[in-house]
Amino acid sequence: MATKVYLNEISNVDVGRRNILFHPLEPPPKYIFNDVINSIYVGRTEILNVPFHWDFRYLTNPHIAIVGITGSGKSYFIKTFLTRASFVWNSNSIIIDWAGEYKDWVLQTGGKVVSLGRGNYINLLDLGGMKPYDRIKQVLRSLSILTDLSQFPEQKRLTAEAIEQAYIKAKFKMDSVEQKDELGRPLEPPTLKDVVKILEEKAELGTYEFPAELDNAIYRLKQFTRPGEDYFAQKSTVDLDKLVSSGLVDIDLSGLPDERFRALGALVILQFIAEKMRASGWLSKKGLRLLVVLDEAWKISKDENSDAVMIIREGRKYGFGLIIASQNPTDIHESIFSNVGTTFILKVKFDKYLDYLQNSLNFSDYIRERITTFGVGQAAVNLAFHTPEKFPQTFIVKKIEGEEPSKDVFIELKEVASEVMKEMGTTAIPFKVSELRERLRRFGMDETKVEMVVKAFERNNRHLDAVTLVVLLERMGVERKNLAEFFKEMGVDDESLINIFSKADLRKEGKKGELTSVVLEDE
Known about the structure:
The chain contains 21 helices and 14 strands. The strands form 2 sheets. An 11-stranded mixed beta sheet has the order 2-1-11-10-9-3-8-7-4-6-5.
């Protein structure tokens, strides 16, 4: 059957009305590539290859959520973002670092690390410019988040009353910010130990009508005052006033013994930041005064009473921004997640997480499918603009283009080096991180595995013994003959090489003896 083609003469106006072309799944360039001097460069868009410069002035607020599996590039993006914000806006940054992941990087970039539990303490009753009455409310809110205090009104009342008495005994004026003695010297705040003492003295009198309530109130506070666990019940070694204006600061919580103590440390810092934010007043100039990073802090992120929620709601007008990152988006409370101005979604695999993200951000099935196949550093970006727009607000950045300071990592050979190598002083092989990544790629490793190996070095203060490295790489599918060539290129002699592979085989077999021979090459 023949096909007939008809030619019609029509006007340009009629052609213009027809939906021949459609706009790709990206915002127009003017929304993502405008004032490059006062914005943060992230990378190029996947479809139109437009440089994406993050500029919160178009958005509902400056707050950012980052989600993605381990090794997808979350911490790399955070480091890049903080570095560029410092250059562009002279922003200060505080990282509330749950696992101590950022401390080496912060030190390397000239920042300051505050390691709680390792010689640094914060007195929970420090005022930080607040009135005692206001600080009491914050302390009770923290204890309610971390314990079941809110379920016991009488115990909560007893605790509040004892904290108030501790301040009064220390000569503090309860409704005043200015706290000085008769000679004009700053007053020394009480500690939780003083509060416990007041409650114990009350119990010793034996006149209180609900002794069980009093005993439980004492027990709850003693969790944070026992010797060796009194990280928040001693005189502060940290000047909280200086934290928000000290450039890049890492609050390392990894030295605290468990989740309760880390959460308490994070809450204290957030509460102080929120108070300083309000006291700082309106910010009229461009940029951000302070960026606060919460990484994997699920205990804090998930509670609506956390001060993270207050910073989300009020931070924009004061020039404060919150960056919250998690492998699990459902660990971020809806009050936070639904109110951030920008969401970066790196690789996510689980359907329940994808369902949550898609329902919250309303992106297409195409975007959802792409998220599951992302490599390291690829991201879907959702922007919440001030006013409703007709173009898509979720688009893909093909690669987060960041930078890290040049640094060395070391493969340690002390336990396996031959006598010849020891005499030569060759007991460690140094690499630039970029060089290490390139060599790992030559083994055919994908970016996710490459980042896992780099993180293994970072977790061990940038040093990894050769045996551990061999076991790790072989588990990732690298052949032994390739590993042998790799070590020989680095100048490792045959005796040392035999020692490395012998110990690697023993470790994999779970044995402690010595092997007398080893196969250096797979047949």
